[in-house]
Amino acid sequence: AQKVTQAQTEISVVEKEDVTLDCVYETRDTTYYLFWYKQPPSGELVFLIRRNSFDEQNEISGRYSWNFQKSTSSFNFTITASQVVDSAVYFCALSEARLSGNTPLVFGKGTRLSVIA
Amino acid sequence: DAGVIQSPRHEVTEMGQEVTLRCKPISGHDYLFWYRQTMMRGLELLIYFNNNVPIDDSGMPEDRFSAKMPNASFSTLKIQPSEPRDSAVYFCASSFISREAFFGQGTRLTVV
User: Fold this and answer.
1) Are A115 and A83 in contact (CB under 8 A)?
2) How far away is chain B from the Cα of A20, in angstroms, using its nearest Cα?
3) Which residues pair with B102 in a beta bridge?
4) Which residues of B touch A95 (CB under 8 A)?
5) B56 to A35: CB separation less than 8 angstroms, yes or no
6) CA distances (Å), origin A7, targets A4, A21, A80
7) What does the DSSP 8-state code read for residue B96?
8) CB of B93 within 8 Å of any CB in chain A?
9) pLDDT tens digits for B41-96?
10) pLDDT band at B16 (very low <50, low <70, confident <90, very high)
11) What is the 3-state secondary structure (H, E, C) of B47-67?
């Protein structure tokens, strides 16, 4: 069965600090997809990134970077030089590939990030 | 594209009343999902459709919950009768060929 664990419930940092959000996943499949979503105080869920299990290359997008390590079943998310606007709940999610279509997203419990000015 | 559109944004109803939540997915998407978010249980899948056909409704908590997708551009989630424990934020999401899902802004349901 698929499972996503975000052990950090809440993190608080001072603006301009770097912060890493941890995500550990469980799956028996060899083909799967990992995701990160952001939920700002306004409540919507915003898609940030999708990675497939065959691509372990790290990805950088502006101040955001993602580190995918299959050996440790982790897909961690780092925000460099954090800003107040980064304050949100961040969710990691997993979907397994099927011939009939990928399984729906299974989410972790989320990490609430507070960036203090 | 306007994104996934949900209505209403907020709903307050009395216990025992029928509640209908509505969703318009992104045009061209073939998957539609209904999720519920609560503090205790986080984000949990209720049901999902592929090409308007329900694929898995095992997440629907009770027979009081039902969902329909009469066409590719509209879906409803109905709770009848509603109970206070149904209070939550209900999200609709859609995706294309089961890639990343795009979420609506959610409906915050309060049952008093």
Assistant:
1) yes
2) 21
3) B94
4) 98
5) no
6) 10, 9, 20
7) S
8) yes
9) 999 999 999 999 999 999 998 899 999 999 999 999 999 999 999 999 999 999 99
10) very high
11) EEEECCEEEECCCCCCCCEEE
- What per-residue confidence (pLDDT) applies to B95? 94
Residue A7, min C-alpha distance to chain B (Å): 14
Main-chain phi, psi angles of B105, to 5 degrees: -80, -5
Task: Per-residue pLDDT tens, chain A, 117 aa: give them.
Answer: 899 999 999 999 999 999 999 999 999 999 999 999 999 999 999 999 999 999 888 889 999 999 999 999 999 999 999 999 999 999 999 999 888 788 999 999 999 999 999
Cβ partners under 8 Å of residue B63, min gap 6 = none
Contact (CB<8Å) B103/A107: no
First to last CA, chain A: 41
Q: Would you call B108 helix, strand, or coil by DSSP? A: strand
What secondary structure does DSSP assign to chain A, as a single string? --EEE---SEEEEETT--EEE--EEE-S-SSEEEEEEEE-TT---EEEEEEETT----EEETTEEEEEEGGGTEEEEEESS--GGG-EEEEEEEEE--TT-PPPPEE---EEEEEE-
Chains A & B: contacts with CB separation below 8 Å: 48
> Which of B60, B64, B32 shows the shortest CA–CA distance to B46?
B60
Question: What is the rounded CA–CA span in Å between residue B19 and residue B78?
Answer: 6
